[in-house]
Amino acid sequence: MPRKLALSVKTLGVLVEHVVDLVETMSMQGGILLGPSALGRITAYRRMMFPNYSFKVLEPMAHLSVVYYAFLVGLKMDVRAAMRTGQKAIKVAIAGTVIPFFFGSGVYFIFVNDKSETFGFIFWGAALTVTGFSVLMKILDRNQILHTEIGKIAVASALVNDLCSWGFLVLGFAITSSPTNSPWSLISTIAFVLLCVYYVRPALNWIIQKTPEGQGYSEFYICSILTGVYLSGVITDVCGTHPMIGAFIFGLVIPNEVLEATITDKLEDFVMGILMPVYFVVCGVRTNIDFISYNTSWWLAGVVIVLACSVKVFSTLVIAPFAELPIKDAFAVGLLSNAKSIMVLIILEAGQIQGVLSTQTYSLMVVAVLVMTMVVTPAAIWFRPVQDAEPYKRRSMQKAKSDDEFRVLACIYNTRNVPTIINLLRTSNASPRSPINVFVLQLVELMGRATTLMVVHNSRSAGPRNPSHIEAQADQIIAAFDNYELRSEGVQTQAVTARCTYTAMANEICIFAKEKRSTLIIIPFHKMLTLDGDMVDINPSLQSVNESVLEDAPCSVGILVDRGFAESHDHASNIVVLYFGGPDDREALAYAWRMAENTDVRLTVVRFIPSTDALELDPVEWEPTDKNHLSVEIDKDSNKLLDDDYLGKFKISTKNNKSISYYELVLNDEEEAIKAIKSMDEQNYDLYLVGRGRGMISPLTSGLTDWCDCPELGPIGDLLVTSEFESLFSVLIVQQYDNTNKMKEGSIRSASSVNYGEEFATRPSVSESEGFESFSSFKKWDPDN
């Protein structure tokens, strides 16, 4: 029932998001329908709804909404991300700005003969340069193109185009407000920008630093910021441009992400839900489709619209050879770049207010913009990547071959996770025969920004001169993994930073893992060990992220817990696997088996077997009552056959390896299992590998399940993490990818229906007489006995 409720809430959230997007998309069309192009033709309606005096109220309110909207755009825009854009995207962005501007200007002079509207070419050209960053992100994300090469280039170039469009808007206002004083308007506006960057931003940063951490921002503080928006607007208006330019610049220089998120939460719904619809109505009422063919033909107007829709594609095709972009990808990027945002309406409406765009030229370009934007969504569906075009087979370590490349997605929540993960990777036995390809994903909470942003880092490259806190952390992570790659043989690393909300973080991890064909996802535990030996929460939100990854992961997952070992050791050399049975334990053993191929590693495998008395209990008495953390059910008999088969293969293959030991403990209940595990502390193991234990029902763990503080770790993982131990070690809790469970929840397989694969042929289990010790009953752990 709780799971169904969670799914319902999630589905409702998705529906609400789509409804909001639909309202934003249809607002302009609604304004046109209310205007003289449709309902405005009815005289009675026009006199009742839009009498002449109503514009004295609507227009000032619309301009106020634009000022606030510009402030929010500046607040959400990440200029550092634009500065870090790759060379390929920069070339596409430059071509997508310069060529459309000159093309639009040329078409304008061909279409318009009125010399009084000469400067209208600036606004036509600027409108064609716009690519709506946030609109494009939503479309690409919805159609699963965001993480493809096409999506990355389109989004990165759109961010640069957005910045350039604001520059064109400033230029247009400066020239059309007073052509003779336009140089002074530009100089004074640039001076205001420098004042904000070098004086206002440091002053705001100083005030923020004086605010006690965790206290939050008072209403007076927020109101003071909004007063600064008004003041900035007044200054740029005096400079000869427009108040929204000042609001945009003021939003850009707000330094703190927490402050950005606070202001956005308080202001965005009011601006987008109440103020901006008024602006859309004003823009729509200004549009009159009947005027498009005035003193010209619809045929010529249609040609102009088609040319306007194709200029982005043309510019991308022109730059494709210089950007080393395939023609097919260039065509796709150009078509997707036609996505327009509210910014294009602001530019066109500004041109009409300044008196350089007539109702005809304004309406024609508005129609062209609507056509361009409507084309983008079908184009995105057309360019959506074919699912599973390339086979994604090695999703678990048990199914991987010994000479396969081991592809690992290492997730980093903060720099304290780095030593533990690198320690584990060093133990993973990379070699030229079986290399390790590590994809490092730094996950940063998105606060106050528009949409999810991913930044691919170039290894061993110099970072920015004045890095932010996040950039400094990224530099440390890159340096650590570069050092690991240089000191290891058969290792390749690539670092990526993903900035997203906690609710979207798990989805980003799973998409990235699938894109990179990962075999294992390593996610850090949400608690850290303190100097007092206690495990404390670093961020409770990360627990929900880890649980979602475990539920939706496209491959095997390991939750890595550090209990102080990684700080003092380079890699683990004394490893133990606690084997209770089940697919997760087999996956943990497969990983340990790979580690044991390193001659410096000593591996101990301990199998816990319920005694006959324990098995004679009624299954209901020891069946777990809380199955919330279990996501798969497994047939006990077939599962035991799989365990015996895999352990038999392991024992036969490692029988002559003196660095590998295998023991069996026959125990009566969970109390004896706890004593056995805690007594292993005397052996000073460096790394414990355990399965998460999904679907496993055992008398040795049933009691532990009821007392789990962290169900995502499983009963044994939770015991190792929450109990007190004197030695320092790390714990990896492993969950094996299960394809049948993804296809059909709760599917049950019989032993005869299991496909072992070519490399895992069925073999009879090894008997106790073949050299492996079996403990008939519990006694204090002593592997030398």
Explained architecture:
Residues 1-25, 620-632 and 743-785 have low confidence and may be disordered. The strands form two sheets. A twelve-stranded mixed sheet has the order 3-4-2-1-5-8-13-12-9-10-11-14, with helices on both faces. Strands 6-7 form a two-stranded antiparallel ribbon. It is of the alpha/beta class. 54% of the residues lie in helices and 11% in strands.
Number of helices: 28
- Judged by helices, strands and strand pairing, the structural class is alpha/beta
Mean pLDDT score: 79
The main pleated sheet reads as:
12 strands, mixed
Q: What is the 3D shape?
A: elongated
Q: What is the radius of gyration computed over CA atoms, rounded to a whole number of angstroms?
A: 32 Å
Number of strands: 14
Q: What portion of residues belong to β-strands?
A: 5-15%
Strands of the biggest beta sheet: in what spatial order?
3-4-2-1-5-8-13-12-9-10-11-14
Helix percentage: 40-55%
Poorly predicted sequence stretches spanning 5 or more consecutive residues: 1-25, 620-632, 743-785
Distance between the termini: 50 Å
Tell me the layout of helices and strands.
Blueprint (H helix, E strand, L loop, with lengths): L1 H33 L8 H7 L5 H22 L2 H5 L3 H25 L8 H10 L3 H10 L6 H29 L4 H29 L8 H21 L3 H10 L4 H30 L11 H26 L3 H10 L5 H12 L5 H24 L23 E7 L5 H10 L8 E10 L7 E4 L12 H18 L4 E10 L1 H14 L4 E5 L2 E3 L5 E3 L3 H12 L3 E8 L10 E6 L3 H14 L5 E9 L1 H4 L3 H4 L13 H18 L6 E8 L2 H10 L7 E5 L10 H4 L8 H9 L6 E7 L3 H5 L29 E3 L10
Parallel strand pairs: 1-2, 1-5, 2-4, 5-8, 9-10, 9-12, 10-11, 11-14, 12-13
Antiparallel strand pairs: 3-4, 6-7, 8-13
Helix pairs in contact: 1-12, 3-11, 3-12, 5-6, 5-8, 5-13, 6-8, 6-15, 7-8, 8-9, 8-14, 8-15, 10-11, 13-14, 13-16, 15-16, 17-18, 19-20
